[in-house]
Each structure stands twice: as C-alpha cells, then as structure tokens.
Write a structure and sequence with these properties.
Elements (H helix, E strand, L loop, with lengths): L22 H16 L4 E4 L4 E9 L2 E9 L7 E5 L2 E9 L5 E3 L5 H12 L3 E8 L2 E6 H10 L4 E3 H7 L1 E2 L10 H9 L4
Parallel strand pairs: 5-7
Antiparallel strand pairs: 1-4, 2-3, 4-5, 6-9, 7-8, 8-10
C-alpha cells in the first residue's frame, strides 16, 4: 500500500515481541471493533476481566490499585451483536509453529463455546500462528476436541479448517468478512 511521502506499509504480518505477545493481536481487534462501531457495522466489545480490589494507594490525586484478585473466571474476550445475532470470540496466539496448545483454552471457555453454539449464537477463536491470523469456528474447535485425544491442534488441522483473516488498514483485521462468508453465505 502506498501512503503520502512515499512511505510503504506492509500489512501481511503483525509484528510482535515476546514481551507483549498477544497485545498486537488484541490492539488490532480493538481497532477493528472501533471501526465496525463507527461505520455502524457491528456492536462488539472487549469484556473487562472482573477484579476485586483489595488495596488502593493515592498519589497525586490518582488512585493506584496495589492489590487485586480475579473475582471470577471470565468467559471469552469479546462479545456483541452482528446482523441480529449474538457473537462471542476469544483471541489466542502461539509461537509454536507446528501446533496450537489446547492448554491455551481453559475449560470454562470451552464450556462457553458449547453454550453459545447450543443457543444459536456465533462463536469462534481468532488464532495467530506462524504470522497468519485465522478464524476457527466454535463448531470446528468442539468437533476437534471431541474426536481427538491430542493436547494440541495440529497446524495442518488449522490450515484445513480455519479461515485466514485478511489484514488491512481499516479495519486492521476484517474478521467480519470471514464471519459473513461462514455464517451468512447466500444472504
């Protein structure tokens, strides 16, 4: 893509450092959701993690949380409405090149994925692996864990069953284009 002052921008990869792994993916999703909201395409929000505050200090008229704990397990990272349907998803990353560890998905998250499917919602995982961002439907994820004894999802399975999310400028990750392709094909 060509920008003013002949600056070239490559949107084929999201760069990450090990220290803030996951943040670039999350930031791109948050920017995409802001874009979807501004363009009146969808209402999708990042869910805050429920915490209980134990100790607070006050510095320069600001409250600083010194001690806190997680009140309860959160479900999936994002939820909202799209085309009249409830939508919920989680974002995951791995640096492992050959498989995606199932330990990255907690039992309560799998339970939530099953429930969203059961109630007719749209649910999926966005997985960043090998510098590619994929959308794996909740149905394909549940089918895999119900029929496999492995502790990880092979990269081959992801390549065969997940859908690549194209990277761009606005939105940075157009995952709703993939959702349209999967859930609203022919409408």
């Amino acid at each position: 893509m060509q920008y003013p002052n002949n600056i070239k921008k490559n949107f084929t990869k999201l760069s990450i450092s090990h220290g803030n792994r996951g943040m670039d993916l999350e930031n791109s999703l948050n920017q995409s959701n802001d874009y979807y909201l501004r363009t009146n395409r969808a209402l999708i929000y990042k869910k805050p993690t429920p915490i209980g505050i134990v100790d607070v200090s006050y510095t320069n008229h600001k409250k600083i949380i010194e001690k806190a704990y997680f009140k309860e397990q959160s479900t999936l990272d994002y939820n909202g409405l799209y085309r009249g349907k409830y939508i919920e998803f989680d974002a995951k990353e791995t640096l492992i090149k050959t498989s995606f560890p199932l330990s990255n998905i907690h039992e309560h998250q799998t339970w939530q994925i099953r429930n969203v499917i059961k109630h007719g919602g749209i649910v999926f995982l966005i997985i960043r692996m090998n510098d590619i961002v994929y959308l794996l439907t909740g149905e394909d994820y549940i089918n895999y864990i119900d029929t496999s004894n492995r502790k990880s999802i092979s990269y081959k399975y992801i390549q065969e069953h997940a859908h690549i999310i194209k990277l761009g400028y606005q939105p940075p990750l157009d995952y709703l284009a993939v959702v349209d392709e999967i859930y609203f094909k022919g409408e």
